[in-house]
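Bumping my old thread because nobody answered last time. Still need a sequence for this structure:
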């Protein structure tokens, strides 16, 4: 994990959700922790005091529950699961988690039938049209279509008490429609998947390289950093870069690229590189 100079537009605290610090807990409004982010598994917690959402379930049930417990959240208190798309790094643990918790699973309309379920289990699916908005508890959720080679993939923004969290990973490029949805974010989890040079000389077959580099593939460091340079707003006090490829990227490269882009903007955004094996700290607004 890496962090740049940290000055937030709004008071930003980093605390456990366990209530170990009651003074902080009692006035906390909106919280986020990336439990895991990489090409091999993705899952993020977005929570208020009364609503706890798991965005994607790409880790096993055991691993997901362990990481939730590590940040002070009892898995049984989750309100719902939201899925971005059906690729295994986003749903590998979904069946087992859903069977254990039996909570609503929000999924875009065409993605729903693309997710396999065991015959003896009927999930509580809440399907929505990609691009639609809906409330879950005291969190207003907006989905938006992303360019990626899945059936009906979406990113999400979450608003509560005047704070906006945005999640945009797994996108082949950055269309204007996505830029619009990321505007005004206080916290942004953005993909920085691969270094183009590493990908080109790396071990993947050419067909896979073409897929990753294509407009329905994954966002490169170069495109992510161009976004930081050209479009990141001063409202975004925390920028989390994630979904790094283990084969075709390195956190140090991502950090260097992003720091340079941030320095060029004279922004005071906190920079965090999400990791595959440990949760980020919990960002509390
Ligand atoms: Zn994907
Ligand atoms: Zn993915």
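Sorry it took so long. Here it is:
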């Amino acid at each position: 994990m890496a962090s740049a100079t940290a000055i937030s537009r709004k008071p930003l605290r980093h605390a456990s959700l366990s209530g170990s610090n009651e003074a902080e807990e009692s006035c906390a409004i909106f919280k986020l922790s990336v439990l895991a982010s990489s090409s091999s598994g993705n899952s993020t917690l977005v929570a208020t005091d009364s609503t706890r959402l798991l965005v994607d379930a790409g880790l096993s049930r055991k691993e997901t529950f362990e990481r939730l417990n590590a940040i002070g959240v009892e898995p049984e208190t989750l309100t719902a699961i939201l899925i971005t798309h059906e690729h295994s790094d986003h749903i590998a643990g979904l069946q087992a988690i859903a069977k254990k918790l039996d909570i609503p699973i929000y999924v875009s309309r065409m993605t729903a039938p693309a997710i396999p379920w065991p015959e003896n289990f009927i999930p509580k699916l809440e399907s929505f049209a990609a691009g639609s908005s809906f409330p879950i508890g005291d969190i207003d959720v907006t989905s938006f279509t992303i360019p990626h080679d899945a059936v009906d993939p979406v990113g999400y923004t979450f608003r509560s008490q005047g704070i906006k969290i945005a999640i945009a990973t797994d996108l082949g490029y950055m269309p204007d429609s996505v830029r619009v949805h990321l505007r005004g974010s206080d916290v942004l989890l953005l993909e920085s998947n691969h270094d183009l040079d590493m990908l080109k000389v790396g071990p993947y077959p050419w067909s896979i390289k073409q897929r990753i580099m294509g407009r329905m593939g994954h966002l490169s460091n170069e495109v992510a950093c161009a976004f930081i340079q050209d479009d990141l707003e001063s409202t975004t006090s925390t920028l989390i870069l994630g979904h790094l490829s283990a084969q075709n990227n390195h956190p140090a490269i991502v950090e260097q690229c992003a720091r340079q882009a941030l320095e060029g903007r004279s922004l005071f955004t906190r920079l965090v590189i999400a990791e595959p094996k440990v949760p980020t700290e919990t960002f509390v607004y």
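The radius of gyration is 18 Å. Let me know if any region looks off to you.
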